[in-house]
Amino acid sequence: MKARTALHALAWLALAGQAGLPVLAQADDGGLKVARRLAPSSLAKELDLRPARPLPEAPPSTQPLELNEAVRQAVARHPSISDAIATLAQQAGGVDVARAGYYPQVRVGVGGGTSNAPAAQGGSTGTVASASVSQMLYDFGKVDGAVAQSQALVRRQQAGILKQIDAVAQQAAEAVVMAHRYQSLLQIAQDQVRAVEAVLETARLRANAGLSTKADPIQAESRVDSARANMLQVKSQLAQWRERLGTLLGPGVPPTVAALPDGLARTLSVEAPTDTSLLPDVLAAEAERRAASAQLEIARANRYPTLSVDASVNKAMGGINPATLERNGTYHTVMLNLTSVIYQGGALDAQVRAASAAEDAARMRIETARLNAVDQARNYREQVIGAQARLGVLADRRRSIVEARDLYREQYTLGTRSILDLLNAEQEIYQAAAEQEAVLHDLWASRVGYIGATGQARAFYGLDNTTVQGMELLP
Q: Signal peptide span per the entry (predicted)?
């Protein structure tokens, strides 16, 4: 059957082509070819794309960059927050549109046409001016539901702004932590280079004096090259994170990052239970549930009639009024209207079912948001506890290795210890110091993640009771 239908279609297309009739497939093929051409330059010209608008920039500063200051600068200029705020204004306009259903609708117009009035009454055509007023009296909650739905969408967008601010704050905090991490590792790598260079100098002096073999300076020089290569790698990683800071904060990033605020970190309690009621994802899901509930009320109200009062007046302007058949006549009406949809093919019932399902889905999104937040908070809490426990052990290890290195240095000078022992001790000191810094910054990264997962970003970074891109943030 399908093959026969396809043959019939092909035969019709062939006949249409022979008769010179337009064939839709041919036109669509030409449009498809144009749509498949990708030319960014032509597209930008057609869209009249303008150069990027410069973002706000903080004044250049030579002071070390503080964590909270970096977060404030990032949220003050990030365009995604501006986008969310503009969308909020759009949603707020929807509330005014919905509320307009409470007020009367006034229409005016002018039209012309023919009339079947007798010629004795003068002229058969004329221009008629009309005006009408319609006021809804009772609609069983249709307008109330539309207003409630629009207000819920506004609340959802407000939660979206909070979520976007928290996201940008977390990005800035992570960039600061990582930049400080490689800044500290660079200092440790430079110390390692200087320490190994000092060992190389000692090895050369001993070799020149005949107190050791020529192999000692060669071994030390190899370690110096390795330390320098490691230092360059760390410097490259630091440059990458400083570029990331430049993207978030602007080009005027201070040359150094200040020490991470341990005093502020002590105010963060990871043992406290997570309050999920203030999380942006939970607030957004609750707003979606209320919007779905309002949509359900609208769907139910659509089953009932709407009562309205309508008044209209029209007047012929230099011709015959078709309603009164009088020259320059005036006609007016005042009516009470009761309108209702009797049958829509089951659409009303389907709307009710769809709105009810949307409300149930929104409830599940609330529970999902709560569950994800608690899971993330627990994960970051364990990372924080583990990193804090490791820091004490690593500090003790570093002290013991430094003591061993100092002892090996004296013994090598006296000729009772080989240069490999001293070089290995310097390497272990670097590894212990680097590992200690890595765990410290892993601790901070876990704190930043915990702050974001529990919705404490605005309070922790000092954004509460401030204005961000025109939006006042309150606790």
A: 1-27
Say if 447 falls within a structural domain: yes
Helices 419-453/347-414 angle, 10° precision: 160
Residue 281, domain CATH: 1.20.1600.10
Q: Are 458 and 71 in contact (CB under 8 A)?
A: no
Half-sphere exposure of 415 (CA within 13 A, CB side): 8
Specify burial of residue 59 (Cβ count, 10 A radius: 0-12, 13-18, 19+): exposed
Does 16 fall in a domain? no
Contact 128, 312 (CB under 8 A): no
Name every residue whose Cβ is closer than 8 Å to that of residue 368 and which is 6 or more positions away in sequence: 285
The pTM of the full predicted model, rounded to 2 decimals, is 0.83
CA-based nearest residue to 468, from 67, 161, 159: 161
On whether residue 473 sits in a domain, the answer given is no
CB-CB contact of 446 with 388 (8 Å): no
Owning domain of residue 372: 68-113+124-459
* One pLDDT digit (tens) per residue for the chain, 475 residues: 444 554 455 444 454 454 444 444 444 555 666 667 778 877 777 887 777 777 777 677 779 999 999 999 999 999 999 999 999 999 999 999 999 999 999 999 887 766 555 544 555 556 888 899 999 999 999 999 999 999 999 999 999 999 999 999 999 999 999 999 999 999 999 999 999 998 888 888 888 877 777 888 888 899 999 999 999 999 999 999 999 999 999 888 999 999 999 888 888 888 888 888 899 999 999 999 999 999 999 999 998 999 999 999 888 777 777 767 777 778 888 999 888 888 888 888 898 899 999 999 999 999 999 999 999 999 999 999 999 999 888 888 888 888 888 888 888 788 778 888 888 888 888 999 999 999 999 999 999 999 999 999 999 999 999 999 999 999 8
Under a CB-based contact definition with an 8 Å cutoff, are residues 334 and 133 in contact?
Answer: no
Q: Which residues contact 347 (CB under 8 A, 6 or more apart)?
A: none
* Residue 65 phi, psi (nearest 5): -80, 120
Q: How many domains does the chain have?
A: 1
Q: Residue 134 has which token pair? A: 């319609």
Which among 382, 383, 392 has a CA at the least distance from the CA of 436?
392
**Rounded Cα gap, residues 117 and 330, in angstroms:** 15
